[in-house]
Amino acid sequence: MEHIVLRHRDIPDIDQLDVYLANGGFEAFKKVVTSMKPEEVIDVVKASGLRGRGGAGFPTGVKWSFLTKNRPAYYVVCNSDESEPGTFKDREIMEKNPFQFLEGLMIASFAARANIAYNYMRGEFWPVAVELDKKIAELRQRGFLGKNLFGTSYSLDVHLHLGAGAYICGEESALLESLEGKLGQPRLKPPFPADKGLYQMPTVVNNTETLTNVPLIISRGADWYQSVGVKNSAGTKVMCLSGHVNKPGNYELPFGVTLREVIYDHAGGVPGDKKVKAVMLSGASSVVLKASDDILDMKLDYDSVAGKGAALGSASIIIMDETVDLAWVMLKTSRFFKHESCGKCTPCREGTYWMLHILERLNKGEGTKADIDLLNSVASQVQNKCLCPLGEFAVTPVLSSLKTFRADFDGHAKDGGAKPKPAAAKPASKKAEVAAGD
Length: 438
Description:
Radius of gyration: 22 Å
Largest sheet: 5 strands, mixed
Structural class: alpha/beta
Distance between the termini: 10 Å
Number of strands: 11
Order of helices and strands: HHHHEHHEHEHEHHEEEEHEEHHEHHHHH
Number of helices: 18
């Protein structure tokens, strides 16, 4: 299958500007700037069916159209924070196919009538930012950024911004606060960024993978893009495979591929041919699914996954084999969310503290079955009461694993049943690189 986003796997050295130009690079940007109106660009993206790849899956063209009905955007911001445990797709795009990503960001800026775009990255991406800065400088030097582009009145510049590596800054309003130099904490909504975003001005916020799709949509058309994938889930998705698979890494596949195909046909199956016990489809914040045949044969698209009571999210798929103890996994996830809670809202701040406290007691063998019920009660009281979605993310895996894998928790209780098997620390696979997929 031809890659749409991970094109560096098909075209060697596409991270070099001359190679990118020789393969049609920036023709889409020149086309929109010189021959299209912003509304026309938005209509093409709407017709393509492109949905946000950051997790929410909101239609990209619709998001852009919120701005241009009444006024232009002052800023376009790309969310390259990528802080969800198990997610590592955007880093590969920025490192290996940077010009296609930047071209997508530039087309989005034109569509939104913005003259300034920012790319927000987590602080740990410092080496990536250094290289991207060189690419942006090269674009300025070659006339793809700056004033009066292609002899028109349109001007655009792109800037990078590194955060401090806080999980909460993956939430768009906390990201904007951080970009303004403030403490990265979420804002109350409404107003949404399309109304009051960066510096209280209309702002479009998109994800890295989302924008990297855009140049080919403009070049080849909406019908071509719709021909890939399935109804309501057009195109491809970069799926991040981690956990108990033989070949963890990124895999760009059409929407509609089954989970079983991803694990066994692409990721090489499970080490030791062990059975898959549980799956998290969108990183550490996911619903924990029991790996029945029905789940393994589930198509990976927005509608099919929602039909199973879960969300595809960023498609950061964590595989857990039959040796894994879910009470131990929840200890790990809760420790992460407690550490990363920004503390602005009480349900998240207090709830993550108490969930971790109870899980530590259980995993030390000092808890009882009443503690498990208490854990369920605390998580339930946090649910739907947080200021931003990231508070909800903390309780989703806990509540779903308590519902489906209660025996794992009971096994830790002093008055519980059989003790669970110890969790394997790592998959027994060959050393794999992050970008080993395909």
